[in-house]
Amino acid sequence: MSQISVAALQFNSITNDINSNLNSALALINSVPNDTSIIVLPELSLSGYCADESKFGIDLSSHENALKDQRYKTLFDIATQRDCFIIACEVEQDGKNTYDTAFIISKDGLIGKQRKIFLWQNESKRFKRGKKQKLFSLTINNQKVKIGIGICYEIGFGEIARKLALDGANLLIYPSAFGKARGYAWDLASRARALENGSFLIACNSCGSNISEINGELLEFYGHSKIIDPKGNIISQLDNSAGVVIASIDLSEVKIQRDTIPYLKDIKKFKKSNSK
Asked: Following CA atoms 223, 227, 229, 230 in sequence, which dihedral angle do they give, to the nearest 10 degrees?
């Protein structure tokens, strides 16, 4: 069985209000069918994208340490009850360093994390850069689902998605807080990353607005979360209102599309011929 059900939550986070944001997320999760295997939250959505990162770091060095944070504990409880994978993205505190980090939770606890490498504008003043792009393998319905994670701005870096696809990723996931002013880039880049790599793609974005704690600027988010097939077709998407985008995806389509337009095969041939 190659089909799995996936979902992305889209909502407006309130800066520094974890309880309110958790309630918004929980309300949306309650509308997601119980057989959904992967649930994705937007970037920094539980603290608020514009929150003071020095106050909201999660220790992701271990499952036990992460459980001390209410955001993580709540998501872990849901993952355990539903027997699903939850991909969230919050501030990670590692000693004196803070990172913008996506992490994967299952009933087994913290099973992986990906730190944002390419930071957008003032994010470089808030966060330290991640160093390594990782591939994660999830077992769903007795099959291996290989996923790669990019965060927000990184959806515009084809190099990241291409490396992940060459490493074996058949599902690309982007938790994001993508700005309304650059919505055109979100729409085009998300479909391009799916098509050029023959991968399914979940683009999970925030909606509404936040007031920046850094400079008082009003930031408006684009919404338009979507799930895209390996041909670059949008299977399901939202507008700029809060909601959930859900789809059943058939992973056998990945191989079919990669055989139909063999970008990855030809890149591998090219690399092999040039290494001689």
From this structure: 70
